[in-house]
Request: fold
Amino acid sequence: MRILVTGGAGFLGSHLCERLLNEGHDLLCLDNFFTGSKNNIIHLLDSHHFELIRHDIVEPILLEVDRIYNLACPASPIHYQYNPVKTVKTSVMGMINMLGMAKRVKARILQASTSEIYGDPQMHPQREDYWGNVNPIGIRSCYDEGKRVAETLMMDYHRQNKVDIRIVRIFNTYGPRMAENDGRVVSNFMLQALKNEDITVFGEGKQTRSFCYVSDLVDGIIRMMENNQGFTGPVNLGNPVENTILEFAEKIIAITGSKSKIVFKPLPQDDPKQRRPDISVAQEKLGWQAKIDLNNGLKNTAEYFAKQLGRG
Ligand code: NAD
Ligand code: UDP
Reply:
């Protein structure tokens, strides 16, 4: 198949492109390089089945494809808050452009939605039928509400124009090729631990997250795209093993053998208190669940960051 991956030079997108290329497909990797990097896909550029397009999905584009994976959107709070208006445009205008393309060429389209659409959840763990608790006017809203509108657009194009859609709600994912400077907890703690610098835990570190390794996530995304039962989702994809951020900091110190000390910094506004996916729908409909355990995943990730620092 001819497959378009928007945001293909980013963390998740580059792993997805690699996997789809290995499966024998023709790949169009589209990216505006806001948070993505050529380094993430440099090893794919020699393939005759891989094409790189520098483009911003906020602008229309005409391409002929069979599948569209729409991953283009900055994902870390410091990146999506850098230009919040642009973040909303990417989720809304970008989504409309990609859905227009899907409608025109009758491609199947998958949207990378997020656990953030649940906001600071009052239901735990989060199931797909929970409508969420999102602040519409806070500093995370450009991302959370943008992604919520993107889901609405997907469903409306499906109902109104019969576009073949798939929605995945991705929970915190980690692994090699996370941007070093994106301020997310995994990259921050890894780099701090490897440099024996203080580990910055926000708040008291009692907030929880559930971390999924990137290869598991990519597997879930492809299974969702290729389910032929017409299951549109939304479906949660994530690893339900839940840790407090403080436990997580201690784990990373142990895995890296670091001498770092933990320090406490103010909790950012609207930081969700707890987050864990209920993945029974993914298990039932896709036969999917995460396989890589946190210790192994973190070891692989630590090796990657050590290499980035010129070690190992
Ligand atoms: P990332 O920042 O590494 O990748 C996003 C990519 O999109 C980058 O390559 C960036 O340059 C590109 N991009 C941004 N705006 C664009 C635009 N307007 N036009 C074209 N390209 C654009 O982030 P990621 O972690 O790989 O996330 C990929 C997708 O998955 C995002 O949509 C994100 O919201 C979603 N997601 C990720 C996670 C996670 O834990 N990593 C969790 C939930 C949802
Ligand atoms: N966090 C932290 N220290 C850091 C970076 C993040 O304690 O240096 C916390 C953050 O407050 C949040 C959790 O780790 O509670 C996950 O943050 P991240 O930005 O990775 O993802 P998100 O909040 O979007 O789930």
About this structure: The chain has a mean pLDDT of 96. The longest strand covers residues 108-114. Residues 178-209+240-275+292-308 form a domain with the UDP-galactose 4-epimerase; domain 1 fold (CATH 3.90.25.10).
